[in-house]
């Protein structure tokens, strides 16, 4: 089974030679979204080799990859793996599974990182952080030689923010309302609306607090925000902003699992 996305990713920046394929006469097996996530995660783990320092992502898709790495370690198919977790919850998962862990202080260069994404655009730019771990994810994945992104096909968008869902920005708690208004003003032409993330979701009252003790402002866009690097620079120039959830030019491989199969796309 195979589904490729050359019409989505284009042909100039990517190599789709690693696509999984088979006869089109075979009837497709309909998988649930979680099963698709597992397919993408397991495909990514095939890139992991013994002796590697591996960034362990956060979220429902990355969780499957961490589980698989632990399984291969215990079976002896992988050896001498060191994991660098991107959140407290991933740290707890890895410890419970017996994966040896370290951090960027001891391993400032990571061989490979595997993580999910909330959005992937045709240039392989990402939105991450709807789970709240964007800062640690970005620190680990910026230090990696190879960053493998694993998603199901529902995460593909025509432009960053195109899902209509949140693009998170981690900010310091001090005067958060002031920072929220400044973020909205940056993208007023894109119809940007910002909301403070709360611990109980939309019905909660207490602010959601990240692993780093910060708040998150979720930005929602009605239109394309424009040049992503300009947008990134503008956000990061605001005092009170810690980091944002746009991962620009960071992914080296995107694995997409769809209802007809899986594709692996490499940035050239």
UniProtKB/TrEMBL annotation:
Pathway involvement of the protein, from the record: Carbohydrate degradation; pentose phosphate pathway; D-ribose 5-phosphate from D-ribulose 5-phosphate (non-oxidative stage): step 1/1
Transmembrane segments: none
The keyword Endoplasmic reticulum belongs to this UniProt entry's keyword annotation: no
InterPro entries: NagB/RpiA_transferase-like, Ribose-5P_isomerase, Ribose5P_isomerase_typA_subgr, Ribose5P_isomerase_type_A
EC numbers, comma separated: 5.3.1.6
GO MF term list: ribose-5-phosphate isomerase activity
Keyword entries, A-Z: Isomerase
UniProt catalytic activity: aldehydo-D-ribose 5-phosphate = D-ribulose 5-phosphate
Domain of life: Eukaryota
Ranges in a coiled coil: none
CDD domains in UniProt: RPI_A
Enzyme class: isomerase
Database matches in Pfam families: Rib_5-P_isom_A (PF06026)
Entries under PANTHER family matching the protein: RIBOSE-5-PHOSPHATE ISOMERASE (PTHR43748:SF10), RIBOSE-5-PHOSPHATE ISOMERASE 3, CHLOROPLASTIC-RELATED (PTHR43748)
HAMAP family: Rib_5P_isom_A (MF_00170)
Family as reported in the entry's similarity comment: Belongs to the ribose 5-phosphate isomerase family.
Protein name: ribose-5-phosphate isomerase
Protein's organism: Solanum stoloniferum
